[in-house]
Design a protein that fits this description.
Protein name: Translation initiation factor
Strand order of the largest sheet: 3-4-6-5
Family: Belongs to the eIF-2-beta/eIF-5 family.
Order of helices and strands: EEEEHHEEHEEEHHHHHHHHHHHH
Strand content: 5-15%
Region (Disordered): 156-195
CATH architecture of the largest domain: Alpha Horseshoe
Keywords: GTP-binding, Initiation factor, Nucleotide-binding, Protein biosynthesis
GO cellular component, one term: cytosol
CATH class of the largest domain: Mainly Alpha
Shape: elongated
CATH topology of the largest domain: Serine Threonine Protein Phosphatase 5, Tetratricopeptide repeat
Length: 414
Amino acid sequence: MASKTVNIRRDVDDKFYRYRMPLLTTKIEGKGNGIKTVVPNMSDVARALSRPPTYPTKFFGCELGAQTTFDEKNDRYIVNGAHHPDRLRELLDVFIEKFVLCKSCKNPETDLVILKHGRNEEIIRDCKACGERTDIDMRHKLTTFILKNPPVKVKKGKKRDVAGAADGVGGGGPPVPGSPEGEGDEDVDPGNESDDFLTKKIKAEAAGLSSTATIDNEGWSADTSPEAVKERVAALEAGLANTVLGGDDDGSDDDVNSPYSLLGKWIEEKKEEADDPKAFCVAVYKRATELGIDKKHKAITVISQAIFGAEIVKEVPLYAALFQKMVTSEKHQKALLGGVERLVGLMYPDLVADIPKVLMAFYQFDILEEEVITQWGTHVSKKYVDRDTSKRVRKASEPFLKWLEEADDDDDDE
């Protein structure tokens, strides 16, 4: 069974907050003077934070005044003494605040960068979400450990998997698209780019920049200094203001006061009272229209997460009319698949095995098209969930993809 996941910022009580991590677990081993606390899923937690697992483990030791042990080969991270899991989770929140979240926008999409000033060294957080570089309190004992064990640098010309390998290279959270790695020829779906419309435009503008510029973690060449980032944003805003204001990214589904979050919470509240699924479909559509997002593809992602539950296979026929009304493009279909991905991958992990039935239900109601499902099933993306979850969901979808392929073959034979 997949481990429970929680918001990286546990102070954000929003189930639609996209940055999530596994809930830290602990195991007490030994007795007497040899008693110790093992963190079995430290690598998974650190991967979600894009930090080496040694960093939060060492942080625990600094805060608790305890010795720590790292056995990276066997994936064992140990804090001497017996420590309650709630205490370590509280300390993890402090670590995230001090060494992960951008001090400006509170987004976890950050890299740790070591700057040298003569003989002195400084650690900063380089935020890929807002472009700000914010300092870290160098008085904390962990900074000494980080300076001696710096994050591994990304080689020039190669993209970074932001969800990160266990060594914690780089920063950024699950939603940022990464590069193919490891198994086979998996790639990130070109249609599943970052939600930030302005970032897409910046990428396009950056294509013509000098190849001698420094490499950015999004995979394009550009000067990543705060001044350069702000300059590019200002220049693009001047020419794209009208486009951005009318784009599909008005408001973020990460903002608890955005129309997307308001719609999601409204659906969750009203669903308990709804006796007639058809009438509820109409009510949801009207509410989305009132919020001005009835045509936005991100509204589909939110609705699919809020309206479905553990009985999604049985619920699809009940709410099919709503999605038939609102899913009007390939982008809407991908947004629906993204919402389903979050639902079964993060909120109801036991439902991953049922993903073929879910896809079949949407397919039979002509909500999802064969080409879109096939493309989605063969392209891993980190837009909606972390890379590992994305792989797991797509792996589970293989029986349905195979059925689609065989059905096409039969049609060709006929």
